[in-house]
Amino acid sequence: MTQNYTGMRKGISLVEMTIAIILFAVLAAVGLKYSKLFLNTDLQAKKARVAAATDQANQLVQAYTIYKVETGLEPTSINDLNGTSAILNDWPTKITEMSTKGWELNTSTGLAGTGFAFQLKLDKNISTSDTIDALHCAVFNREFNTSTELNVTNAFNFGTAAVKFARMGNYFCYGQATVNNPTIMVVVP
Length: 189
Fold this sequence. Notes:
Blueprint: H1 14-38, H2 41-71, E1 103-106, E2 117-121, H3 132-144, H4 161-168, E3 171-174, H5 177-180, E4 183-187
Antiparallel strand pairs: 1-2, 2-4, 3-4
Helix pairs in contact: 2-3
């Protein structure tokens, strides 16, 4: 008994499969290109830098607390924390996209009820045209107060240290980029 050929075949040919793979690859490439328009990778990079700075600030506050408990004294300089006391093996790495100097110990904050703070001056991108330092400051403040605006200009004024301390607590960024550089301040409790 012979079967009649109906013209229907099972499966796909190698040519059809190759065309389908090429079409899927083209669609994926086009989709990837346009998805980058919807993702703000620049903002995500700034958030990552701010997260690293926040982590460093927490380490410094802990080192300060350990130093004070072990010695019974307040540190007189930043070197006390990684000098002979050996609380910190290494000073936190400077985040070069944010600051030229890195963290500093401020022994006279001028804030009521406080005496010591760690400061990170955001002075890496000083100009009247870019908003990099101001945006780092806004992202830092937003980590501790979600109502902080991220749409800032380089001339944006984040306020004085006293106003920010009263409003936000121990972790805040203050200043104006074109006047005195925004500065991250972490007040030691």
